[in-house]
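Thread amino acids onto this structure.
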């Protein structure tokens, strides 16, 4: 657990004191020392951006260059460089775009996020878990388990936002930011990042919507957007009007709504699509659905959330609880990735393969090794063993 710095504590205190007002004069907290700390926190082995410079190239000039970078930022001379876009495999046939900013851009984004985060941690809801300090997917799953298993909220809206990170409307995001942050230097910098070009196969394009690809500040901006579109609306406007109990759990753009009564679930389902359209977002019509966990025999008996399929089953004490297992999609993806990796490394010595394979398996078990998932884990291990020479 990372402790908050003195600057972050001061910003959090100011955010609490002026809850209804946007904050100014935040750039004073960004110092050469902060930039150097953020630089040292970066992934040393990440790919170079459009300037061709990686962490190891930069470390020798960092102490001399970072004060100059700060001066460029504070004077407005700094220009956000284009982001290099590459594609990485997703599943068997798909590819996912990945944005790679330059080292200096990462350092500045990290510092701006460090200053903005304490402001929004004061207003973000407890049921929001994605890209926030000291929160995790497992905590989000545990919260949902409690609500469904012991809170009796078995009518589930399983939602899917289409291309969320690429659809965020810049004008609307600026309006949301106006409510809490009006530091001119930070806002100008955020605008530069939103407008930064994307370099792909030597072709430069400029996005008109979405958050900066691969940007360190992007997860925070995306959380801010959904805080106002969904979290605040559901908890402060919708829930007080419902007849029964309800809950929401969100991790980044992945969220689940749960209800005690079917009529409440249907009422929310009727307005949910319009709510998102109002803010230039689209829910996938085929993937956003209402699941009735009370009647598993009638189909629609499970839903996927954070890589697991969730369904009702009996505990050892004979009570119905929300169980989970690795989703079919993630199970297949995991096996395909492992099979491809073994195929590419089969020329290595067997002891090296086993050593690296154990590291990969531990990473897999760390995420998927949770209560009720032992059968899927055993199946995964059995199938991975079948890939090895001599099996």
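Threaded sequence (391 positions):
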């Amino acid at each position: 657990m990372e402790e908050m710095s003195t600057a972050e504590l001061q910003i959090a205190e100011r955010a609490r004191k002026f809850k209804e007002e946007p904050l100014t004069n935040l750039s004073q907290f960004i110092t050469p020392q902060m930039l150097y700390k953020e630089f040292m926190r970066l992934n040393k082995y990440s790919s170079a951006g459009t300037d061709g410079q990686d962490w190891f190239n930069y470390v020798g000039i960092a102490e001399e260059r970072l004060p100059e970078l700060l001066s460029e930022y504070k004077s407005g001379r700094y220009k956000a460089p284009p982001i290099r876009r590459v594609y990485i495999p997703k599943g068997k046939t798909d590819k996912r775009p990945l944005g790679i900013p330059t080292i200096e851009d990462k350092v500045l984004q990290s510092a701006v996020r460090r200053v903005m985060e304490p402001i929004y941690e004061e207003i973000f809801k407890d049921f929001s878990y994605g890209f926030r300090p000291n929160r995790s997917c497992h905590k989000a799953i545990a919260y949902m388990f409690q609500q469904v298993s012991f809170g009796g909220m078995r009518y589930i809206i399983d939602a899917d936002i289409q291309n969320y990170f690429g659809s965020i409307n810049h004008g609307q995001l600026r309006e949301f930011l106006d409510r809490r942050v009006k530091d001119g230097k930070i806002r100008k910098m955020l605008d530069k990042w939103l407008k930064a070009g994307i370099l792909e196969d030597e072709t430069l394009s400029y996005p008109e919507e979405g958050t900066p690809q691969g940007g360190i500040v992007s997860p925070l901006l995306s959380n801010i957007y959904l805080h106002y579109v969904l979290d605040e609306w559901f908890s402060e406007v919708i829930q007080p009007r419902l007849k029964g109990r309800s809950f929401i759990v969100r991790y980044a753009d992945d969220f689940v709504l749960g209800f005690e009564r079917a009529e409440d679930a249907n009422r929310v389902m009727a307005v949910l699509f319009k709510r998102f359209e109002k803010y230039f977002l689209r829910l996938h019509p085929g993937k956003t659905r209402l699941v009735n966990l009370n009647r598993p025999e009638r189909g629609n008996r499970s839903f996927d959330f954070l890589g697991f399929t969730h369904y009702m089953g009996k505990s050892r004490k004979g009570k119905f609880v929300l169980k989970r297992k690795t989703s079919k999609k993630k199970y297949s993806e995991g096996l395909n990735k492992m099979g491809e990796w073994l195929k590419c490394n089969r020329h290595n010595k067997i002891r090296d393969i086993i050593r690296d394979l154990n590291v990969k398996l531990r990473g897999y078990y760390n995420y998927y090794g949770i209560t009720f998932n032992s059968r899927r884990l055993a199946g995964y291990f059995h199938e991975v063993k079948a890939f090895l020479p001599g099996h």
